[in-house]
Every structure is written in C-alpha cells, then in structure tokens.
Amino acid sequence: MKKNPLYSKSVVTRLTSVDSLSPLVIGILFFIVTLIMSSCKDDEPDFSADIAKVVGTYTVTDTDEDNEVETYNVTITKVGNGVEISNFGDIMYVPVKASVKGNTLTIPSQTFKGKTMTIKIHGQGTLNGNTLSFDYTIDTGDNYLLEHSCQASKQL
C-alpha cells in the first residue's frame, strides 16, 4: 500500500484549520492575546491643572427662578480627579461632586435623601479668570424644578 505524498496545498489547509489546532496551541494563543491586551492602559486624562484653577473659596450670588437673590460662600476642594463643593446652594450639608475639564465645571446628576425629602441636583458652569458662572437645577420629585443661576467670585 502506497501513501500519498503530502502536497503543500493540503499541508497549508491542515495548518490553517482551527479544528486541527490542539487545545494547547489555542491556550497559548489566548494567553498571548490576553497579555497584549492587558498591557494596553486606558489612562484617565489628568485634569489636575484645570482643577487647580477652580479650587478655593467663592462668594456666590445665587438668583432663583423667582429672581430672589441670596449671597453665601462655597468652598471647592480637589478630590481624586474631580472636585467637591461644600455649602452648595447654602442648603447642602454634604458636598456636591463635580468635574472640571478645561474651563467647564460639570455637576452630574446626584441624589440626596433627607428625613422627609429626596432631591436631585445637576448643573454646569464656566470659569473665566476668578469668576465662576454656573446654573443648577434642584428636582424636588414633585414635578417642580428649582432653577438657579449663580455668579461666584473667588476670594483671594
């Protein structure tokens, strides 16, 4: 009985067939791909310089939707890759979190629960020199939104 010689076409077909790969070879390939993918880092952008510009104490002139004006102080501190605003709206006993990118301050939607009420706060603003202009909205959960517009001057 004579064996057929291996032709290059059949060898290539056998080597490129997934079915012919042994579990060991598949495991090694999977390990290599995993190693390469894990070495790629998705570094979070560094906004430290932007954050440093807004950190400080501000005197805020806060105008609500009824044009009532209130003046109070807030303190913005760096926390991680963002900031926290203490005494926000002159009503918050816990800091409100915000992010800074360039000259833009973003207050993402946050929920705060008190003894008798739950509120959601969100807003956005811009820094121009030592003046922070921002708007924020308080959702009281009863289909009523409290809208505020603020001008904050950094205390030097």
Keywords:
Lipocalin; alpha+beta; 156 residues; 8-stranded antiparallel beta barrel
End-to-end gap:
98 Å
CATH class label of the largest domain: Mainly Beta
Model regions low in confidence, pLDDT < 50 over at least 5 residues: none
Assembly type of the shown chains? Answer: single chain
Helicity range of the residues?
Answer: 10-25%
Q: Rg from C-alpha positions?
A: 29 Å
Indicate the topology.
Elements (H helix, E strand, L loop, with lengths): L7 H9 L6 H17 L8 H7 L1 E9 L4 E11 L2 E5 L9 E6 L2 E10 L4 E11 L2 E9 L5 E10 L2
Antiparallel strand pairs: 1-2, 1-8, 2-3, 3-4, 4-5, 5-6, 6-7, 7-8
Task: Describe the protein.
The chain is α+β, with helices and mostly antiparallel strands. The chain folds into 2 domains: 8-39; 48-154, Beta Barrel (Lipocalin), CATH 2.40.128.120. The protein is 21% helix and 46% strand. The chain is built from 3 helices and 8 strands, in the order αααββββββββ. It has helices at 8-16, 23-39, 48-54, and strands spanning 56-64, 69-79, 82-86, 96-101, 104-113, 118-128, 131-139, 145-154. The chain is elongated, with a radius of gyration of 29 Å.
